[in-house]
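This part of the workshop introduces the protein records we will be handling. Getting from the letters to the C-alpha cells is the skill we practise here. The record below serves as our worked example for the rest of this section.

…
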Amino acid sequence: MSATRSRLLVVDDDLVQRVLIGKIGAKLGYETVVASSYEAATELLAREAFEIMVLDLSLGERDGVELLRFVAEKNFRAMSIVIISGCDDRIMKAARRVTSALKLTLGGCLTKPLDLSRLRSALERPRRSPLAATSASPSLLVTPERIARGLADHEFFVEFQPKIALQTGRVIGAEALARWRTDEFGIVSPLVFIPIAEGAGLMRGLTDCILSSAMSQGRKLIELNPGLTIAVNISGSLMSDLTLPDRIEGTLRRENVPPASLIVEITETTAMADVDRANDILVRLRIKKIGTAIDDFGTGYSSLAALARLPFSELKIDQSFIKGCESDDDMMKIVDASVALARAFNMKVVAEGVESQEALEAIRRIGCDVAQGFFFAPSLRRSRAEQWISQRNSLADDQAGSVTLQRGVPAARALAY
C-alpha cells in the first residue's frame, strides 16, 4: 500500500477548472481522477479510495452539499475535502459548517477565481500526516475479528502530538493517538477501526491497550520533561463503566507513571449521555489527581450543561472552530466565548487543529493557554517526539533568556514557530 501513489478526485462541472486542478495535483505527485457530475463522483467513490477530493459546490442539477452528505453516509471521513466555489463569503462559511456538522475532514475552503498558491497548500496538507495514505476505503474489509487479532498480536500503538504552551512556547504535554499497523492494510486510520470496535464491544480491550502503550511509551517523555502530561481519549462506551477509574489507576501503577501526568479526554456528548455515571467516574479520577478534559467542545448540544455539571479541568476547543477562525468572524466569536466560559470555570483552554501562523496569533490574542496541530508537529513516534520536544524546549528556553529581543514583545511571540 505504501508504494502506491496518493489519489486525488476532482469534482467540478467546469472543464477548465478540472484541468487546472488536475495539473497541480499531478505536479504534487497525485494520481488524479476527475468527475464532472454528482453521479460520476458517487460511482467513483463507491468503488475506489481517494486521499483527497476537491469539490465545487455548484454541480449543475445536483450540488456539492449533496455529495458531502454522500461521503458522510459512506463514512469516508479520513478523506480530506477541499471546497471551491464562486459563491459569496456567507455561503462559503455556511458550507464550512455543513462539513463540520457531517464530521468530515475539511482541507480548505477556497473562493473562485482560485488562488493557486492556496490551492497547492490545501492539496499538500493531508500529505503531512502519517495517516494520509489511509482512507475509509470500501475495499478496506476490517472486521471485529481482525481487530481482536490485532490486539492479541500487539499491532496497536500510539503516536504523540505535542501540546505547546502559548505563554512560553514550551511543550507542556502531548496527546497520545491510537494507531494500527497491519500487514494486509498498512496503517489503518482510527476513523476506520474505532467505529467498528465500538459496535463490536471491543473498546474496553482497545482502550486498555492504548492507555498502557501511552503510559509505557510516555514515561520516558515525562521523565525527561518534568511536569509534562500525556492525554488519552476514553471511549464513550466506557463512561458507564464504574470500574474505569480503578483500571486506569492500576495501569498508572504498573507503568510507574504519576497520576498527575495523565489527562483523560472525553467528548461532551459522551459525558452527557449518562450524566450521573459520568460524574461518578470524573469525580473519582479528579480525586486520584488525574486530569480530565472535555474534548471537541462546541460540537454537541449540551456544552454549557457539561461545563456546569461535570468536574473537567481542561477544555479543548474542537478543531472545526479553530481552522480558519482567523478569517471567519463567526467562528472567532465562538472560540472567544469558549475561552471566556473556560475561565469562568477555572479551566485550562487547549486549541486543537492549529495549522497556520494567523490562527496561532488569533487564539493567542483571545487567551488560549495551549495549542496543538500540524503547524507545530503531526503525531510522532516516541523516539522522534523525544527529540522534537527537546529541540523545541531548548529553543524556547534560549528565547526566554533574551526577553529583550524586542521591546514589549513577549519571548513566546519572538519564538520561531
Notes: The two ends are 33 Å apart (CA to CA). The domain at 7-128 is CATH 3.40.50.2300 (Rossmann fold). The chain has two domains: 7-128, 144-414. The longest helix spans residues 203-224.
